[in-house]
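Duplicate of earlier report; Stigma-specific Stig1 family protein input re-posted below.
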Amino acid sequence: MSVKNNHMVESFEVSLNETDESSSSIQGVSRFLGHKSPYYYKSKIIQKRMNTCNKNPRICRAKGSPGPFCCNKKCVNVFADRQNCGYCGRKCRYNETCCNGQCVNTLFHKRHCGGCGNKCQKGNACVYGMCSYAN
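Output:
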């Protein structure tokens, strides 16, 4: 540490080993920051193509997948997805929610009042997403 013009200046020395500049991995390493070898990008593109469910449908059943069904190269749950409700490509309207594969309006639906599976008691109506509103 040194003092120049009443300011403290720290100096660091960085030494690179010969092994830091070259790598035998397929990803490749460059001595320039943020630069990766062309092999890195090719492997990422190939990996992305192989991980689409239309080529490999088993990935939709893997742990952590959004759903077990493949729609337009994406894993989805057709029982809860508003863009693929019940089957691929069936979209719910803006005021509807996908509950068990059916598009329903949760503001007024008796079996899905305010959310999926929220059933109103017998004799009570669903109004504005609440059972027995203003009764």
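The chain has a mean pLDDT of 75.

Merging into the original ticket.
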